[in-house]
Structure of LacI family DNA-binding transcriptional regulator:
Amino acid sequence: MAARARIEDVATAAGVSIKTVSRVLNREPNVRPQTRERVMQAAQALRYTPHVSARSLAGNRSFNIALLYNNPSDNYMMGVISGVLSACAHEHYHMILCPAPLQEDEVLECVDELMARSRPDGLLLTPPLTDSPVLLNRLDELEVPFAMISPKLRDQHVGVAMDEPLAAEQMVEHLAGLGHKRIAHILGHPAHGASGWRLAGYRRGMARAGLAQDPALEVPGEFSFESGVAAAKVLLDREDRPTAIFAANDDMAAGVIHVAYERGLRVPQDLSVCGFDDTPMSRQLFPALTTIHQPTDEMGRMATLALLGYMRDQTCTGIRCVPHTLIVRRSTGPAP
């Protein structure tokens, strides 16, 4: 079996110092592009992989980043996790998955324990943790670099987001174009910025279509299947029930379809149903769900790269916007 390549071997092959190789592999700035390319080619040719413990000791870093989450949608989180893992593998980092409790005081204890036990170099936050002033203040106190996915406030922060109001508005436009006039909306969890954005887009879409906005057609949810079931029962119990229901995520839309079939309603002939996120479940439902494709894996990947970039250069701030797509499937059709 061939001996494992050492950093000295890479330096010799590239014709540079060991320190230069280290700077290139750690993505540090102020290395000439030609030198960086030569070192990377040498490392690939030798199949060199850095030894994590040696890197940690040399740079006083753990080469771990922690993904802190408290989100009821497993489908959403699986996409984010996939993207984070992809970026970590490319950048020679490891991901620590850290579920956070609901209560803010318990979240602070969770973060303090995480920092003491695992010493991550930075944190990734998912909603609704992105919108917790208490948590953000604690991270600032600890001087821990962090990046956010879909934060409500976007000034002077690092991360990635999507134009969710526009996406929701386009969904309402799709339903109105099918002749629907009574379009209901199931809101997401009130602590999530996404819930407010999607509601704003729904209202804007109704106004642009010239449709009356009935507060009774705006029903609270929590981004979970169970809350979609509860909201659907409220809406479908009405004498003047809606002909279309736009749920703020796919999990709740699945709950709506479940209740519709329990009551003998055909989707989409009697009731059009649509969601948001384009999770794998949206393609597995029958009928397949009309939804907004939110590239959660790409958002996880981009947020990770933004965090690592900020850790190297703290002037690299800003929230990058990712595109969305309206995916029309068989769960929406002409108004009855």
Notes: The first helix runs from residue 7 to 14. The radius of gyration is 24 Å. Residues 164-294 form a domain with the Rossmann fold fold (CATH 3.40.50.2300). The chain has a mean pLDDT of 89.
